């Protein structure tokens, strides 16, 4: 079968060919399929296009090296995006020495908003992205993983290397912080 024909295959079919039939050259199909998306996710954290490309290449290399570890508990794209978010957070931690528990303590909210008391209002996407830039990268990653990439709490907790209960609490805190900051800045 011609190499080009594999571009019509599903991710799972390509992964099967790579892992079980040692067709490692087929990773190029996955690379072409996902590299632009990985670059965009990296850019959303790193804010430098050249650095985002460099980090995205590192992510794709790391993903290739770990293909044998992929458990098929989630889609390949979810697994790849988890690796991407985690890699970006680790990169930022090293560069800025970001430590989430200390950052969270230094940026404490006046009070955690009870989700049952939230009023409903329309959210502007551009304004929301502005607010996401002001929160900790780990909180931003959690919100994007949950609501943009539809990852489960378990998948997010694995990606961020925290327990599921810690993940739930951090996600709740992140949502409360984003809601609070959004209301403070944009709601009249």
Automatic annotation (TrEMBL):
Domain RNA polymerase sigma-70 region: from-to ranges: 30-96
Pfam assignment, any one: Sigma70_r2
CDD domains noted in UniProt: Sigma70_r4
GO biological process: DNA-templated transcription initiation
PANTHER family cross-referenced by the UniProt entry: RNA POLYMERASE ECF-TYPE SIGMA FACTO (PTHR43133), RNA POLYMERASE SIGMA FACTOR HI_1459-RELATED (PTHR43133:SF8)
Family (UniProt): Belongs to the sigma-70 factor family. ECF subfamily.
Descriptive protein name: RNA polymerase sigma-70 factor (ECF subfamily)
């Amino acid at each position: 079968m011609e190499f080009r024909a594999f571009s019509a295959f599903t991710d799972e079919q390509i992964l099967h060919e790579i892992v079980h039939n040692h067709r490692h050259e087929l990773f190029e199909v996955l690379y072409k399929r996902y590299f632009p998306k990985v670059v965009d996710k990296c850019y959303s954290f790193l804010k430098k296009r050249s650095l985002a490309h460099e980090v995205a290449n590192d992510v794709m290399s790391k993903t290739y090296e770990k293909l044998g570890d992929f458990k098929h508990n989630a889609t390949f794209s979810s697994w790849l995006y988890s690796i991407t978010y985690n890699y970006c957070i680790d990169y930022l931690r090293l560069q800025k020495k970001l430590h989430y528990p200390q950052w969270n303590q230094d940026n404490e909210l006046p009070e955690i908003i009870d989700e049952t008391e939230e009023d409903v209002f329309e959210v502007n996407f551009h304004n929301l992205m502005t607010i996401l830039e002001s929160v900790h990268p780990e909180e931003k990653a959690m919100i994007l993983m949950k609501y943009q990439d539809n990852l489960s709490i378990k998948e997010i907790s694995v990606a961020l290397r925290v327990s599921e209960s810690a993940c739930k609490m951090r996600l709740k805190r992140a949502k409360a912080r984003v809601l609070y900051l959004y209301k403070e800045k944009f709601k009249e």
